[in-house]
Amino acid sequence: MRIRAITPIHIDADELERRRARYARLAPEGVSVHLDDLGKGPEVPRALDTAVDVRLSETLVLAEARRTDFDAYDAVLPDCVLDPGVGDAADVPMLGILQLSAHLLASTGQRVAAVARNEPIAAELERKAVGYGLAAQLTNVRVLGLDVTDIADDAAWGAALARATIDLDATLVINGCSAVEVRDDAGEGPRVVDPTAVALRVLGLLVELGLLTRAQPGVSR
Q: When you count CB atoms within 10 A of the terminal residue's CB, does the N or C end of the chain come out lower?
């Protein structure tokens, strides 16, 4: 399956290449991912720091998704755990990182929590979980209080994660950013899950089983 991923904000060339390399490493057999920047126009958010940024990102991602060449790609995957535009347009085949990963985690029967960089992202993540019917499974969303520049700073993000999750009443925690490297250390507290890695594995399994094509349920076309 050929996936076109789209960033939810404008990022510079170095960050774009970092995220592209991450997708290349995480994509399973049968799935290829090409990541495009949302654009550098003045209307494009540089960070999701307010509720206005979140809504604007959703509008712009969906508009860019509609410009996708679907002779070259089978579906669009927003490069964001908030799944901007997913489920909002029947004319565009879109998949969501949270959509794919959170349902799998909820199916384990374990208590699931999440962390997010700031309050607006946390609020939107909770809203999406409710929309996916997972409100009862998502027990808590903690705010890390980090800047957009910390997304590529493994040490800063890891330290904030450790502080935020040590006493969470959950066994699994969704790391609320699609582009952060999550270390799978066996330490204290719940296990922090990389939603992008999980989503791509789920997508790979669906492709392997022949359960997902552009015209089938699961892709909103």
A: C
